[in-house]
Each structure stands twice: as structure tokens, then as C-alpha cells.
Amino acid sequence: MYHHTKTKGDLAVLKAQVDLYEKGYMILTPQTEHSPFDLVVYKDGIFKRVQVKYRELNVRGILEVRFRSNYSTASGVTTKEVNKEEIDVYCVYCPQTDSCYYFNP
Fold this sequence. Notes:
Residues 3-103 form the PD(D/E)XK endonuclease domain. This is PD(D/E)XK endonuclease domain-containing protein. The structure is a single chain. With 105 residues, the chain is an alpha+beta fold. It has 1 helix and 7 strands; from the N terminus they run αβββββββ. It has a single domain (5-103), classed as 3-Layer(aba) Sandwich (Trna Endonuclease, Chain: A, domain 1).
């Protein structure tokens, strides 16, 4: 089934929300698409900013994570490097394993 890039990202965020909720986190969502993180989670008095990515396994069966994002503007596609100081946790959702993987940026 074909997935548009935005749809893939939306699916990854939804999968992360369910996974984090099941792990006991309260899920908070920014009211804009322009924040450097997709979610904020809260547990045990600690807030964490979470960036979520959708990544398929490469031909060698490895998840490759690129610390950048792409978005379209009137003048074309723009690539922006992720500022690792603006996020606390990276979450990668992989559709082949239907799992979320978490790590510090």
C-alpha cells in the first residue's frame, strides 16, 4: 500500500503515542506543526520532548536515522538539520517490525 510521506509521519506519531501511553506516559501535543518536536511526554514529574520518525529497514535490514527533516515550500523542498538541543528523545517507528525504538539524540 502506498503511503504519502505526511501520512507515514502521522502513522509514526500515532504509533508512538500508543506505545508511550502503554508505558505510562501522559502525552502532550504541540498546537503547531512547526515545533522542533512532535510530542511532549510526562511521567514521574519529568517532561521530555520527543521527535518521531517513520523509517523502513534498508536492504541490509538496518534502520538508518538521519538527523534532518524535509519540508516543502513555494520555492521547493527544504532540508533542515535537527537541533539535538531541542529534543530529549528520538523515537523511530518501523513498519516492518511494527515497533517504536527510542534513543537519546
